[in-house]
């Protein structure tokens, strides 16, 4: 091997290390947590600039031909550590962009625009970081003691870069494979539902932005130490797209995929295209074709293999601990024997689930006249329309209370206000004697007041078991700190949660589906999964929005029977349902709403006897 | 109503989405210049029936006639050319365009000279639209918006109007006004109007004939006066009061 070839090989290794670190950070944000950070390159740039100005002497000492901030001439490894820290800190203000108010596409566009703005700012304001010319003559790490152009130095640099990449891999894996990582993936699949289960989305997004930002910053620090120069041209917003291409092609959400993608795209693909003879076309033609090719690669992958080369792997936890004599059959027939005779089932199934309603047994509800949930003159306007206009209801412990009314009566709006997913215009929500009107959904969920959704709300790329586990409250592994402390910190919580989930799966006849992705279930199975998941939060009160919609009538009755069993064990349930036959069979009392107000409350028989109720359905 | 006078005639239509039929053999007919309504509780198949009539859902059996022409199974654009004007429940106007532009879009298939003439005719049916021609559709009130949606469809002077819950999201008073004033006006312009409604009482008041759907079948079909007087009609919406005191699960 000639020295030129060796130099080239080492160059590739160092770039591989840098790109692997960056791709791991981006994969964590985009693939795991679903934050489409089109401004990712800013964090790498921030790290690179930080490392540069920490290692450069102040500008007059450096010849005075470039102007920049600071210039502290600090020894290695301080500039790299600073790069990682600043990369993470820069992420903090970005949480306002991807905060809870701005979701999905809008946040992505916001970040893209921010990246462009930063680049323009740095390019055009020279005293800050020397403008478009950028910083040069950045000292390489330890260049006073060793010769940066020597082969030994190059080998060491490559080794350090790869060791740091390995460290980044272990760090990202530790977070992603923890219960906290599961919460991040739940947020990715359906943030509204994750919110309602008690996940603090703002905190979760902040932590992935900071973690990914720190990794990007570190990669920038390593990069600038190697190339000893850094200018706005090196971090145009389009560079983010190259990293996105790497993550998508490697396999979003998979750490090995991120590593592979980093090797394939920014390193492999760009190097390979370098060998295309550039003798044809106008100058720069081949370089521009590279961009076209990367764009095409992304499109081809999204079309034919959206999961990437190494897809996110399925986390098999399984339902093996509880001996299951139920073969892989249709759920309907599985759940059947459990409630062949409802009376017997109720008597016999003293819910094996560890502790179905622990919070309901506390007494604050009793202090509120037996009402677990009460509203005072609750109202919600949508642009002048009174969707709910002054509703005062009480829901008592252990009841399966129904909520009915014609289309547009305000049922779903009321449910949303009770759960905290729709803001209240006026009035109060009193839960277990406490005014919770101002609390966001996740805080109410932590108090035991949890809702389900009318539309499919399973986490599609979590298994049924993971869907259940994602709902466990106060899990020691379900925080960034817990995740970083490792499995030893949270193993016992996890095992306890798995045991509870297995009992629920057995009870609802879905044991054989524990390792099936939520997105691969039938409509009825999704409904059951949703109910099991909400039970994992150990709620005191459930708010169910049409839990039987789109479910075969036979399965609907089995769900109804399960709900009654739960109520017999102390659960309180408020259920919206428009199938009146279900109300007849399972709900007492039934609250009837029309045009935003409560018209009547009683059994279905009571309601039918009241002319104004029947008339409300006819008036519609 | 005799079959030869019907502008719209549907016989024994079955339709659904993939997994099975939602409506099981429904027959309706509407004569020119009259309003027929379809009412029934949630999930009774009203919307599916309308979709089967306008070609969005393909009927598995039965036939649909517009005048003498069999349009069964034709795609929606062919059904529209055959003289069926469909007013959807939502997304019914072009919000960024003005009222006049919306009407002109409705006359997209007409010759340029004809358009202005038709706009005048639509305005004679819905005079209130004439006072707001330059306003953007997105700034209209709910009732005005629905009126514009109907006016836009009226531009082609279809023989049959299919209205999907025109009063959804309207305040009760506005709903009544829309039905008594404007839906009725469509019929008086000579078209056959089939309107699906959640507000049974209000739509009965403007109908010449009403079909009550339940479980995907026509439970009752009669004049509004006779339906309003019928106990069975009431029960089809909210269930019967049990004859015996032992109601299931009423403990």
Sum this structure up briefly:
Chain A is α/β, with parallel strands linked by helices and 620 residues long. Chain A is built from 24 helices and 11 strands. Chain A has a 6-stranded mixed sheet, sandwiched between helices. In chain A, strands 1, 2, 3, 5 and 6 form a 5-stranded antiparallel sheet that branches.
Order of helices and strands of chain B: EEEHEEHEHHHEHEHEEHH
The strand order across the widest sheet of chain B is 6-7-8-3-9-10
CATH topology of chain B, by name, is Rossmann fold
Q: Largest interface, by Cβ-Cβ below 8 angstroms: which chains and how many residues each?
A: A-B, 27 and 25 residues
Output the radius of gyration of chain B.
19 Å
Q: What's the helical proportion of residues of chain A?
A: 40-55%
Q: How many strands of chain A?
A: 11
Helix content of chain B: 25-40%
What is the number of helices of chain A?
24
Low-confidence stretches of chain B: 243-251
- The number of helices of chain B is 9
- Give the quaternary arrangement of the chains: heterodimer
Strand content of chain A: 5-15%
- Coarse morphology of chain B: globular
For the biggest sheet of chain A, the summary is: 6 strands, mixed
CATH architecture of the largest domain in chain A: 3-Layer(aba) Sandwich
Number of strands of chain B: 10
The value of Rg of chain A in angstroms is: 29 Å
Write the layout of secondary structure elements.
The complex is a heterodimer of chains A (620) and B (251).
Chain A: H1 3-32, H2 40-55, H3 78-94, H4 104-124, H5 126-129, H6 151-176, H7 179-189, H8 191-196, H9 201-227, H10 238-250, H11 255-274, H12 285-304, H13 331-335, H14 342-348, E1 371-382, E2 385-391, E3 394-396, E4 400-404, H15 411-419, E5 426-431, E6 434-435, H16 441-446, E7 449-451, H17 464-469, H18 480-485, H19 487-507, H20 523-536, E8 541-545, H21 553-568, E9 572-576, H22 580-586, E10 590-594, E11 597-602, H23 604-608, H24 611-619
Parallel strand pairs in A: 4-9, 4-10, 7-8, 8-9
Antiparallel strand pairs in A: 1-2, 1-3, 1-5, 5-6, 10-11
Helix pairs in contact in A: 1-6, 1-9, 1-10, 1-11, 2-3, 2-9, 3-9, 10-11, 10-12, 11-12
Chain B: E1 8-16, E2 21-30, E3 35-39, H1 46-54, E4 61-66, E5 69-70, H2 76-81, E6 84-87, H3 99-106, H4 112-125, H5 142-154, E7 160-164, H6 172-188, E8 192-196, H7 200-204, E9 209-214, E10 217-222, H8 224-228, H9 231-238
Parallel strand pairs in B: 3-8, 3-9, 6-7, 7-8
Antiparallel strand pairs in B: 1-2, 1-4, 4-5, 9-10
Helix pairs in contact in B: 3-5, 5-6
